[in-house]
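User:
Note these tokens:
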Amino acid sequence: MVAYSFKQRFVAPIQAGTKRQTIRIDRKRHARVGEQLQLYTGMRTKHCTLIGRAPCLSVWPVILILREQPGVVLDGFRGIYGDLDGFARADGFKDWGELAGFWADNHPGVETFDGVLIRWGNLL
């Protein structure tokens, strides 16, 4: 099992099933398709709480372009999400503007982010 921690603001959308993906920096070991994910809030603190468990459906390379001409490159295909607002909603945001604002607040100066997109199914 692979565990991921989320900010408190994402707990309700995860539980409601409206947030079923996360964008993370690439690292040695992410979830693999078919593995069970453990989704937490407050990991590595005394307030650590399990949000739920879910099967990993996909793990794709992703590039977020957060500058003047925004876009998403998913598994090498730019614009697979012609609807950037739809992509943002799947990640727990109201629209692309809110996603871009979150990234600006949490990752100052980052205009292009290269990482992985992890998607999961229904909470178990």
Remarks:
- Residues 12 and 19 are 9 Å apart (CA to CA).
- The chain has one domain: 2-120.
